[in-house]
Structures are given as C-alpha cells and as structure tokens.
Amino acid sequence: MSLSLSSYPKRFAILTLLSATRVFFFYKSRRNLSKRLKSLNPISQNPIPKTPRGKIFFISQTGTSKTLAKSLHSLLNLNGFEFDLVDPKEYEPEDLHIESFVVIVASTWENGKPPSNAGFFVDWLTESADNFRVGSLLLSKCKFAIFGVGSGSYGETFNAVGREGDVDEGNLAEVFGKWSKRVVGALSSLGENGGYMGNGIGDGSEDEAVSEGDDDEEYDDEFEENDDESGIVDLEDIAGKGPSRKKGVNDKLINGKSNGGTVNGEKAMATPVIRTSLEK
Ligand SMILES: Cc1cc2nc3c(=O)[nH]c(=O)nc-3n(C[C@H](O)[C@H](O)[C@H](O)COP(=O)(O)O)c2cc1C
C-alpha cells in the first residue's frame, strides 16, 4: 500500500481528483448561495417590462439627497421602472405639466429654504401653486412622491421643503430604504391596475395607490395625484408662456416691456404664468 501511494504518478492522480472534487463543490455552493440571495429579493425577480419614463429630482446642497436619489434610481430601474435622475437646475419647470411620474428627494437648507440647485424650480412651483387658478392644475396629469431630508435640530424649519427623514436620528438610509420600497410597491400596484402601463397616466380609479390631496393620506400612499378636473386654466396654453431656461423663452413681455428674462434685475419666476392665467 505505502509502496503504491508513494509512486509519483498515483499521488498526482489522487491529488488531481481531490482538487477537481473541491472545485466542483465550491462551484455548486456558490450557485446555491446566489439562488438563495435572488429568492430573498422577490421584487427584482419579476421586473415589470414596460414602463413610461418618470423623473427623480434631487434637491441637494452637499450630496445627501443626491445619493439617496441615486439609490432610488437604481432600485426603480432594477424593478423595471424607467426613471431619469434629474438635477432641477437643468430642468425647465414649465415642462412639469407633461410629466406622468415625479419623485422628489429634497433637503432643507438655511432658514428652511431649498438648496441652491433648486431655487428657481421651487420658487416656480411655489408661486404657481399659490395662484388659485394655476395651482390645482399644475400637476393635474402627474403622480408624484416627495421625500424630505432635514435635521430636527433646526426646529421650526425642520424639513420645511419635504417631510420624512431626519439626519439626527442616524437611520436616514433605513427610513429612505423603507420609503423607497413603498414607492416600488405603489408603482407596482399602479401597473397591476393598468394605471402605469401604456401612457403612464392613471385612470383615476379608486384601486390606484394614489391619494387626492388629503394631507393625512398623502404620506400613507406614496404617489399623490392632483385630480382637479375643474378646467379653469388650460396648462397646455400656459406652457411656453412662463419663465423658461430654454433659449429665447425667458425674454417675455411684462407690462408691455421686454424683461430679458428678469424682473427688477432678477430672473423672472412664475409671474408671467400667473399673469397668463389671470388674463384668460
Ligand atoms: C447651514 C445648514 C442649514 C441647515 N438648515 C436646515 C433647516 O433649516 N431645516 C432642516 O430641516 N435641516 C437643515 N439643515 C440640515 C440639512 O438638511 C442636512 O444636513 C441634509 O442632510 C443636507 O442634505 P444635502 O447634503 O442633500 O444638502 C441644515 C444644514 C446646514 C449645514
């Protein structure tokens, strides 16, 4: 026995056999592990194949909200929902009326104001929303969800831009992760109800995971929908008449004079939009 094992060819053959067996079992265990990990994530197993594109805006000064928005972007794409990650400073708010799905991840900055990358965007929204004729129809075709990032230590201005996350609690990623899953769930149920497929506009049925302006419901259901059908102002008419970053569009007439895109030396916000609505 010892004679035969000590011969080099036989030793070599046994070692080779042992190595091959080890490689085989290692390969099998890796495959089992990856199968188990996949089964732990049922959402990503069945991605919904067809979705209209939505927009995720990040309103961020030092990158926290941007990082969260990026992770949500990956999660939504992984689950088959096509969204663009958008810096609001690169976006013309007058185009909001054509969006079907908007997610905003927004930090609050000094004195309860939004970070500078969204100054124009937020002012535009605020002024338009404050106008009783424009406000209710501004996002009438759009489902939207907002996650706010702020610090409780700022008291009254805590999360003035949007609610939900408190950096002081030390669990921002966890809170955002849970909220993100609820967004995926809301989108999935819209898809199941036929409200998300095709043109991406919900049919307004009660089955949809959307609410209609009730403050309490807004944070139960991730996607808010403005369903006001009163039709006082046609946003199709307003589009292109408001302030714009697109070349030439900002040069509007205010009180009959060209403003060069500014009012009193400052960039015009929603004033022309509101003016248009009031003149109708
Ligand atoms: C100068 C400064 C002012 C802030 N003001 C507020 C505030 O008024 N309300 C609030 O909720 N959080 C406030 N915060 C906290 C920020 O919202 C928090 O740090 C957040 O993570 C920043 O997100 P960002 O990196 O996306 O800009 C402030 C932070 C700084 C540094």
Structural class: alpha/beta
And the CATH topology of the largest domain?
Rossmann fold
Named at the architecture level, the CATH assignment of the largest domain is: 3-Layer(aba) Sandwich
Task: Note the beta-strand portion.
Answer: 5-15%
Would you identify the CATH H-level superfamily of the largest domain? Flavodoxin domain
Radius of gyration: 27 Å
Under the CATH scheme, which class of the largest domain? Alpha Beta
Poorly predicted runs: 196-220, 227-243, 247-280
- Separate helix tally: 9
Overall spatial form: elongated
Tell me about the biggest sheet?
7 strands, mixed
List the secondary-structure elements in sequence, H or E.
HHHEHEEHEEHEHEHEEEEH
- The helix fraction, in percent, is 25-40%
Estimate the mean pLDDT confidence: 68
At a glance:
This protein is an alpha/beta fold and 280 residues long. The protein contains 9 helices and 11 strands.
Set down the secondary structure blueprint.
Blueprint: H1 2-6, H2 8-40, H3 42-45, E1 54-59, H4 64-78, E2 83-86, E3 101-107, H5 119-130, E4 143-150, E5 164-166, H6 172-192, E6 210-211, H7 215-218, E7 223-225, H8 235-238, E8 253-254, E9 257-258, E10 262-263, E11 266-267, H9 271-279
Parallel strand pairs: 1-2, 1-3, 3-4, 4-5, 6-7
Antiparallel strand pairs: 4-7, 8-9, 10-11
Biased composition (Acidic residues): 204-237
Protein name: Flavodoxin-like domain-containing protein
Domain Flavodoxin-like: 54-224
